[in-house]
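Technical annex, item 7. During the second reporting period the consortium partners agreed on a shared format for inverse folding records so that results from different sites could be compared directly. Each record opens with the tokenized structure and is followed by the designed sequence. A conforming record, contributed by the partner at site C, is shown below for reference.
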């Protein structure tokens, strides 16, 4: 499975750790930056990672900024992206089962490495439930087309 990953300075260290973890788990990871802990603006970094998911170059995307909020705002502006800001495993699971989220946003300043790994793991391993949630996700796509 191909995964786009990215961060700003607020998530850089966690991104580097996560990259290693994902590779060990057998995922193919493309890193959209940033490449150091120096302060950098997250919007275009997030946009590039999200675009690669919308274009189907990658199946899923993960972006870590300080809080995860900025990244989720940006990613959700890209057509085809359903970004979820997840702070625990339960929300991560629900965002896949109910919302078919394809972009995970994390707050690098609010999660330790082990918590982040657990969230990512459950998020990547959970499938969309479909059923009653199908038409809700279809409505999201409908709304997207109206814009
Ligand atoms: C950067 O200081 C911080 O604002 C950014 O990482 C993110 O938390 C924005 O939502």
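Designed sequence (site C submission):
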């Amino acid at each position: 499975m191909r995964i786009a990953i990215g961060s700003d300075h607020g998530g850089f260290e966690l991104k580097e750790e996560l990259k290693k973890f994902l590779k060990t788990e057998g995922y193919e990871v493309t890193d959209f930056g940033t490449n150091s802990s120096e302060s950098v603006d997250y919007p275009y970094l997030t946009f590039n990672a999200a675009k690669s998911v919308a274009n189907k170059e990658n199946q899923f995307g993960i972006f870590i900024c300080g809080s995860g909020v900025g990244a989720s705002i940006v990613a959700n502006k890209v057509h085809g992206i359903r970004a979820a800001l997840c702070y625990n495993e339960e929300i991560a699971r629900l965002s896949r089962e109910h919302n078919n989220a394809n972009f995970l946003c994390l707050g690098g300043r609010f999660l330790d490495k082990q918590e982040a790994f657990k969230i990512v793991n459950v998020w990547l391993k959970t499938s969309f439930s479909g059923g009653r949630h199908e038409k809700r996700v279809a409505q999201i796509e409908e709304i997207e087309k109206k814009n």
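The pocket of D-ribose is lined by residues 8, 10, 42, 65-67, 69-70 (CB under 6 Å). The beta strands are 2-7, 28-31, 60-65, 83-85, 103-107. All partners now use this format for quarterly exchanges.
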